[in-house]
Design goal:
By secondary structure, the protein is α/β, with parallel strands linked by helices. The protein has helices spanning about 1-20, 35-40, 45-70, 115-120, 125-135, 145, 160-180, 225-240, 255-265, 275-285, 290-300, 305-325, 325-335, 335-340, 340-345, 350-355, 360-370, 385-400, 410-435; strands at about 80-90, 95-105, 110, 185-195, 200-210, 215-220, 245-250, 270-275. The chain folds into 4 domains: about 1-120, no CATH class; about 125-180, no CATH class; about 185-275 and about 360-435, Ribonuclease H-like superfamily/Ribonuclease H (Nucleotidyltransferase, domain 5, 2-Layer Sandwich), CATH 3.30.420; about 275-335.
Length: about 425
Amino acid sequence: MKKRYQISRRRAAEKFRKFALSNPVPIQLTFPLPDVVELAQTSLGDLLRGVGRAFIESVMEAEVEELAGKRSQPDPERNIYRWGIEDGYCIIDGQRVPIKRPRLRSRTKREIPLGSYEMFQRSSLLGETVWQKIMLGLTMRSYKEVVQQFADAYGLEKSTTCQHFIEASRKKLKELMERSLAGLAITVMAIDGTIFKGQSLVVAVGVDASGRKLVLGLRQGATENTTVVGALLGDLMERGLDFSKPRLYIVDGGKAIRAAIRNHAGDAAFVQRCQVHKIRNVTEHVTDADRHALKYRMRVAYGAAEAADARNLLYKLHDELLQANPSAAASLMEGMEECLTVSELRLPVKVRETFSSTNCIESGFSIVDHICHQVKRWQGSDHRLRWVGSALLFAETRWNRIHGYRHMPMLINALDAAYRLRCAHNQAELKAQVSAA
């Protein structure tokens, strides 16, 4: 019975939509002048909200007249007639505002739903409003007091707000995990994992040819292992991302991420290890007194204009560390070539600085931490994914284009040239092996 009534409400809304599109007569709104003066003295916002409520009631009355005729001219031959007025509500500014709803019945005593009331009562906008305000920092406990603008508004208790946020955040997560990536010119992809409330979350952020950042996907796992990262990249491939195109991949140095990238992209992957992570890892091996000087020398080396100069400075530093701290020297050499990928590509300074670290994805993590700080108790299911996905989508709307975005065509050309050179080198090696055999 309930399902049948819901279907009739949807049909009523569609019928009213068709009536509104075919009816050129404007709605006549009558608003008493004393009420205008009284509300205007309080605030202009109260006046506008009062007019909005009166407008909604006028629209419903227009539909009632279309179905049951005018009140002053009852038509006994009509199959629909008025059946009084009852309390109802509509959604205004994300709040449930009480209104008086006209009721209609058929000659068979069946309730006739109003299509206009169904449209004004829909809570989809309420869910979107709740999501936006929660992302901006409102807590569910304070939501009611902060956003309530109508004196008699209701339905904004913590439990109601929570339900609407769950629905909205689940919808946002679904949109993020299913949106098509086909045709996107993703030139750079940053992949990083973070421990979030006891769970490992791996996130992929792409940078397109115009320098705009886009959240590509995320995966939750117990650890940042090859299976989790591989599942994330596999999902991106299923949604249309082409891994055969030469692309710069920025990682933090985790072996699982690098292995998954190699499995999916092969020779088309140019991996840049985060220089900030590398400096941090190396300096952890020395005493506090030596860290500042070591950090400075590594930054100077990474900032060299030519990759050969950077390599020479790092080799010299390695020889010195080998005498004083072999562990620090070994850490410096580990993955050294991948730390110099942006230098090997001969990129402009701004682009090289931007893509030499995972800062382009770390900024998103900082927004996630800020937004999710208000959650007091974490539960199972998709709780973490919903909040982190929502926070990342919110961060995406606030991201500017990367520094040096005007030089992105130079990066694309450099990747294409390096890829062709790598393919030619691999073919030459293969021929040499065949000849030797």
